[in-house]
Write the structure tokens for this entry.
Amino acid sequence: MSKIHRLPDHVVSRIAAGEVVVGVFSVVKELIENSLDAGATKIIVELTNGGKSEIRVSDNGEGMSEDDARVCFEPHSTSKISSFEDIYSIGTFGFRGEALHSISRVSKMKISSKIADEALGTELEVVAGRVVYKRSVQMERGTSISVRDIFFNVPARRKFLKSTSIESRMATEIFERFALSHPNISFLLQRDQSVVHNFAPSSLLDRIISIYSDFSREHLKSVEGEFKRMHLSGYISLPGRWRRRRSLVLFVNNRYVTNQLLAKALYVAYSEFLHKGEHPLAVLNLAIPTEEIDVNIHPQKLEVKFSNEEKVFSFVRDSIKRALKTTFAGRLSLRSYRSDVSG
């Protein structure tokens, strides 16, 4: 008898869902990305019980037609690409067609959506990947997706969810990342019906100060760098204004990433200013041609690879160094600057 056998499709789907959906924050991330790809100018995130009971993301984007709403949660259904080669010129946040399918397999999901050209919207409830009902509803253009009881049908995974407070904090942090990458968009976050953040469109600097209340305009320095087809922009904290833990918010083409190469470039640029246990605040976006990066290396799309890492590292490091250097123009020394900021 053969020891090797094919897994049933429903088992494969649940395993794959676990790679995309690792907690409340990953659901929030995927749904906000869908809203941004839909051209939303207002995004509302609501969490109940830290998101473990319900996560709801609503937007005023272009919405989905009835036909699109019926298939959006099916595996590998996407409007973003049509061939493998499209991945290397992708300009949207989503592209694999995995997110809604993965979420729907391990939750009770309700989708309500309407496009401008249709009189009524479409509402579907999907439980563990199966459509429970579909009906027409009155609603404004846009999309609202409710995700209830995450991992209700995978008890082994649900027990590994963090506490309500930790899941809530992680979801809030990912919400703040998107608010920083798109300061021109309205973002509202509610936790158990209490407003946590209500951001109107603003400048990046104002959005940073709203989130990091321990910093003021005087504590931050703008960064602008350009080399060939790369552009670096954002803000970094001035030497002498540190945090106790890493506070690096890094974007590549407005996509939030965790990237050791970019983090190292920043710390090398700060090397002569930092003492042990000191960390700068940095909110930076690297704009780079899509053909020079690969975003298809992590199920949650949180990592990227660069085709020329040395070039990217040097560009980011040198851009930050130049910004820091202008801080000390006209000053006698770093020691005198430290003395100024400390009092």
Observations:
- Residues 14-18, 79-84, 335-343 have pLDDT under 50 and may be disordered.
- The chain has two domains: 9-199, 204-329.
